[in-house]
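To whoever is covering the structure queue this week,

Two jobs came back overnight. Logging them here so there's a record in the thread.

Job A:
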Amino acid sequence: IGKYLFHKQKPKLFVSGVWWEKWEQALKPDEDDKWEQLLSRAGRPFGWGKPEWVFLQLLTGSMVCILVLMWVVVSRMESFPLLSMCLASAGSYMLPYMGLKTWANHREDMLSTDIARFINRYVTLLENQVPIYNAMVKAARPTRKLKEYIPTLSEWNRDPNEALESFKRKIGVDDGIILVSSMRTIETLSEGQVSATMQRMEWAVDHRRMFRHRKKIKSLGIGYTVIVYPAFYMGLLVAMFPWYKLLTEILDKYLT
């Protein structure tokens, strides 16, 4: 729907259909796994792919650049703020990408928690002889995001393997791959093996979530060191400068 609206709302005089096809063809040779992984982790918001997001980046960067130029013309500044314009344009260019990355990280953490909840209920329901599809639906009810990707009953009856594959694609994170692989494995296991397999999968999901949290805490520590410490020392130097100036005046007065 988002992709349709994006194409529908484009001004024809600015972005024609022919231009957009050329734009997509120009970006196809540059397709890389990082963009695909990021879009999968983010759940492909609005149905957009790499061409739409890169176009949005260029659009926001260009708009900020134009606004700065208009502000310079209106205010009639004597010196042109080239550095400020470059920094503002670069920041606005990276803003959509950083927003997408932030949402992808948040969605991955949310799905990781959902998968951990799903596993506990799913194993309990299977041990109580609940059919697989009913167990999936009931186990996903208390989740926040995972329940949106559960295949419908018609999809499951048509082809369970394809339904699980679609389920994995919609989740889009590595924990989802582990979940679907384990769900396929336990269909051929005994009751005792099912519990042991799902417990190992739960441990793997929890371990990955804790690793992401430790990585986030480490990055926050690095950011704190890079941003806060220099600002603190600069403020300290500014606060001590009047005392330093007073001290030098006193020493000059009594030593000369």
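Job B:
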Amino acid sequence: AFSLLVLLLLGGAIVLKNLILHQVKKKIEATLHYARLRLTVIPPAIVLEDVRTVSTSPFFSAERIVLQIPFLSLLKRDRPLRVFIERPVLRIYENPQPDQKQKIALKLPLSISIENGFIRDGEFYYWGEKTSFTSYKIKAFFQQSQDRLVLRAESDENSLLLDSLDYPLTGKASVSLEGRGNTIAINRIRAYGPEFIIKGKGVLSNPEQPEFEIQASLHGQTSLIQDIFDLPFDWKGTVDGKCTLSLEKGEIGFRADLASD
């Protein structure tokens, strides 16, 4: 009798999991395109391959996305998922054509949240009229509950090109942020390059057309400041101080209180 009860409970759990997975699948199909989709029983999961959005800005694609539902999730009201995203690419243009703009909003059914999410080997591109930024080999961990997002990410290959510079700024970067709706608090950001070290925090808004303001400490070469602002004199040495870095309507802003040796 005990064995029969266990089998009934296990069978019921599998049926409930399959029901949830099919509902998630239906919601995904209304939002994203994919080349292949399959359901696995053990572990119960949806596996999507060659995923992409219709819009060109923002444009998202991924080589593979796996959505798993742990058994313990069946006992929770929000039924959190585990998400694994392999080789995702996010591209954002500052001024896409009107017919290319599309909001990305994937609201999963049954109040499903993300218990643990992992991103491997990601890429990010932003192209503006006066600023462009690229990031490669991104590794990230994230969680999402309703409209709250928590994310920690790092990348060893980053490149920032400013209209005032003839060369890109390159280096490593890491970030820890928490967001609700269209506003994201940047709790910690670190950037290290051959000519600079930046440590700070700030706010990011309107992720579809990003705008941000970051207050940070800066250590770097005076030659970098000279090149950015096209100063009409030679300035040799290093510089330390506080600065505010912002992006608004595609234009980079920079204010600083600096001292050099």
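Note for Job B: The CA atoms of residues 213 and 246 lie 4 Å apart.

Please reply-all if you pick these up so we don't duplicate work.
Q.
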